[in-house]
Amino acid sequence: MKIGVPTEIKPQENRVALTPAGAERLQHAGHEVWVQSGAGLGSGFEDDDYRAVGAEIRPDAEATFDGAELILKVKEPLASEWPLIREGMTVFTYLHLAANQELTLALQETGAYCFAYETLEENGALPLLTPMSEVAGRMSVQAGAKFLEKPHGGSGILLGGVPGVKRARVLVLGGGVVGTNAARMACGLGADVTIMDLNLDRLRYLDEVMPRNCRTVYSTPLSVREHLVHADLVIGAVLIHGAAAPKLVRRRDLASMKDGTVIVDVAIDQGGCFETSRPTTHADPVFTVDGVVHYCVANMPGAVPRTSTHALTHATLAWTLRLAEMGPIRAVKESPELASAANVLGGQLVYRGVAEAFGLDWTPAEEWAAAH
């Protein structure tokens, strides 16, 4: 199969979908790999690094897409890339369609086979989302600590405090991969951490493994509001597989929060879990609503591409090999995991969570594949 790896064009996105090591593995499996010139520079990979393992360097996006049967990306295709996606092409990337109806409809129009890293499910887990969730969870505390500083609009509190001065209070909404990594980082910095979740088994587990400066609380609308009052940093880390994030904090709730409190909405790719959230960029990462600083960067791991690109390729490569070997239709028929990653197939929406987000018609991927 001919596999294209274009340069990411989302603002301040420095990751690339494939490392040279990954390109070599695909080449050894009998596939052609085309990498757009400069695609790896942000992650520390020169064109010659790809050439050395047998990949072909293409001059621009058009040449990378043209003739490719499988396109590997990191972020969702932007509007300028839509015309390059054609019928019969397979696209494998983070899509987050439940937060973007325009993209959903555009991908249906292309007739392509679109598979999303974030919905691929294996034994109840999301293995292709996990590495970026780990990165984003850890980064959320770094970002929160920075914007708590007074020059950045925060309340001016140090997360860990100092002897004789109280520590910052960190509230983490969601006890999954993002929330656990965020809580662990905040605990390591010495903050007073509370992590909230609906899953009692998960709370019991976290209660056993987290440091002593982390407490667990069952999440209800009332308990969330009670803890918002005292929080200095709030991290939104909720996830519903492939669906829009629930709004856990409403605009009216901000009135009870202290001026200079910082919100980091890691769920912004799926629409955000704060009613007042809207996507921001690394170049302009924050805005303030009712005295509360909002950090809602939609591609947080793009700021640390040397770490993120390696972690991403380590997770995606085995599935890329399988998808390239089988092709999209056979993959849906024979691999339940890749079937769960299918979001749009040949113009048909095939993922329930996305369809429900926008009230669109859909067909289960396996049913669609059986008819083709």
Report what the structure shows:
- Helix content is 34%, strand content 16%.
- With 372 residues, it is α/β, with parallel strands linked by helices.
- The protein has two domains: 191 residues, NAD(P)-binding Rossmann-like Domain (Rossmann fold), CATH 3.40.50.720; 174 residues, 3-Layer(aba) Sandwich (Rossmann fold), CATH 3.40.50.720.
- Strand 14 and strand 15 form a beta hairpin.
- Helix 5 crosses helix 6, helix 5 packs antiparallel against helix 9 and helix 9 packs across helix 10.
**Helical coverage, percent range:** 25-40%
CATH superfamily of the largest domain: NAD(P)-binding Rossmann-like Domain
Structural class: alpha/beta
Taking all Cα atoms into account, the compactness measure Rg is 21 Å
CATH class (first level) name of the largest domain = Alpha Beta
CATH topology of the largest domain: Rossmann fold
Low-confidence stretches: none
Name the CATH architecture of the largest domain.
Answer: 3-Layer(aba) Sandwich
| Overall average residue pLDDT | 96
**How many DSSP-defined strands?**
15
Give the termini separation.
Answer: 20 Å
Order of helices and strands: EHEHEHEEHEHEHEHEHEEEEHHHEEHH
Q: Count the helices. How many?
A: 13
Strand order of the largest sheet: 3-2-1-4-5-6-14-15
Q: Give the overall shape, derived from the CA principal axes.
A: globular
Residue fraction in strands = 15-25%
